[in-house]
Design goal:
Shape: globular
Mean pLDDT: 96
Number of domains: 2
Bound molecules: nicotinamide-adenine-dinucleotide
Oligomer: single chain
Number of strands: 12
CATH superfamily of the largest domain: Leucine Dehydrogenase, chain A, domain 1
CATH topology of the largest domain: Rossmann fold
Radius of gyration: 21 Å
CATH architecture of the largest domain: 3-Layer(aba) Sandwich
Distance between the termini: 42 Å
Helix content: 40-55%
């Protein structure tokens, strides 16, 4: 990555390209391409040895035209204001596309969590959440877990906010443990969304689930659940991989046999399932119907794309396909369901968690899954129709749809005062 790389510039370039395609009025482009507000905080923490250390943190709201800001808070040494603003921008489009009443937000603390004791982590989390309290709230901005943050940290956030306002406020964060207002179905939601989107596209392309050969890169939270769901409906999951490498079996693999592996990073999935050992690159170019990259970004590159044999790709990871590879795949007629459409299951069920928390009324897993499936199907259907109508790829159509909704909301609300 070059020194000048800016994630926010990248997000804005993507926006500009589609805004131009749509013929969006310049004045609205100026409103939508910049983050609305960013709070930068200096967080003092008393360390276990009695000294006081300070940490830099941020919370950005890119746009709230459609509703409160929504997006995770990450703890990492990679956190910068530029990255947080870019991620908030992408959340605006993701929530808009998902059709849920949210704008985009993101936050982060510049910290190496592995250096902190449990007590230091808790004090950092609670003080950070107090510092960003002017921005957050169940009707204003609802954070969630992200890189290196989890249900335990969300519980501290919820408690800190509740203590500060004097009442238990479940709706201030999502991603909480089920015993503390979390939603059934949240753990599997992203993988489920990747699966539902792929099944819908398979129906449109006339691919029978029983004949479908599925390959999944990444066997973590997203990849594991997607693999299990494909397996359950009778598709042949022929290839799986993780950080250590891949496994291939043309007769089909049973991903449930690798469950323990999916929950820990100690051993490779390849050692737990019967099949031939292959490299990750071999996995991505296997002869198959559906490929789901569910590991990390920039996996489908210019050099791999010409050799990809999948008919359709459902992106579980964020940014797994480079722009050059995207063009090659489009020219080859491979259908690519873009990340912010295919992996929106998590944020959609977070929305359900928020709704349940506001009402203090909780749903069964079946109900959560049925509602999620319906929204995923509706979103892909709409984007598919728009892509055909405009003769563009699904990614551009998804952006188009997302930007149009926020632009319309902005126009309807008018510019205050
Ligand atoms: P995870 O950490 O649970 O799993 C990641 C998996 O990828 C692991 O199996 C790991 O071994 C594997 N992996 C790592 N490096 C690899 C490599 N070089 N080659 C092949 N496999 C490799 O993460 P996750 O929660 O499943 O998230 C995966 C991706 O999905 C990330 O890009 C994340 O940002 C995105 N995502 C996750 C969610 C969610 O709800 N978990 C939501 C939206 C997007």
């Amino acid at each position: 990555m070059s020194e000048e790389y800016s994630a926010l510039r990248q997000a804005q370039r993507e926006f500009d390209k589609v805004a131009e395609m749509m013929g969006l009025e310049q004045s609205y482009r100026n409103v939508l391409r910049e983050p609305a507000r960013t709070l930068s905080v200096n967080v003092p923490v008393r360390m276990d040895d009695g000294t006081i250390r300070t940490f830099k943190g941020y919370r950005c709201q890119h746009n709230t035209a459609c509703g409160p800001a929504k997006g995770g808070i990450r703890y990492s040494l990679d956190v910068t204001v530029d990255e947080v603003q870019a991620l908030a921008t992408w959340m605006t489009w993701k929530c808009s596309l998902a059709g849920i009443p949210y704008g985009g937000g993101k936050g982060g603390i510049h910290v190496d969590v592995h250096e902190l004791s449990a007590g230091e982590l808790e004090r950092l989390s609670r003080r950070f959440f107090s510092e960003i309290q002017p921005l957050v709230g169940p009707e204003k901005d609802i954070p969630a877990p992200d890189m290196n943050t989890d249900g335990r940290i969300m519980s501290w956030y919820m408690d800190t906010y509740s203590m500060n306002v004097g009442k238990t406020t479940l709706g201030v964060v999502t991603g909480k443990p089920i015993s503390l207002g979390g939603s059934e179905g949240r753990t599997a939601a992203t993988g489920r969304g990747v699966f539902v989107a792929a099944m819908n596209a398979m129906r449109k392309k006339g691919i029978e689930p029983r004949d479908a050969r599925i390959v999944i890169q990444g066997f973590g939270n997203v990849g594991y659940w997607a693999a299990v769901l494909f397996h359950e409906v009778g598709c042949q999951v022929v290839g799986l991989s993780d950080y250590y490498g891949g496994v291939y079996n043309p007769k089909g693999l049973d991903p449930t046999k690798g469950k323990e592996r999916a929950m820990s990073e100690d051993e490779s999935v390849c050692n737990m399932l019967e099949g031939d050992r292959i490299t990750n690159e071999e996995l991505l170019t296997l002869d198959c119907d559906v490929l789901c990259p569910c590991a990390l970004q920039n996996q489908l590159t210019e050099s791999i794309a010409p050799r990809i044999k999948a008919k359709l790709i459902s992106e579980g990871a964020n940014g797994p396909t480079t722009p050059e590879a995207d063009q090659i795949l489009y020219d080859k007629g491979v259908v690519v369901i873009p990340d912010f459409l295919a992996n929106a299951g998590g944020v959609i069920v977070s929305y359900f968690e928020w709704v349940q928390g506001l009402q203090f009324f909780f749903w069964h897993e079946k109900e959560v899954n049925a509602k999620l499936d319906e929204i995923m199907d509706r979103n892909l259907d709409r984007v598919w129709v728009l892509a055909e109508e405009k003769n563009i790829c699904l990614r551009d159509a998804a952006y188009w749809f997302a930007i149009e909704r926020v632009a319309r909301a902005t126009q309807l609300r008018g510019i205050y005062p």
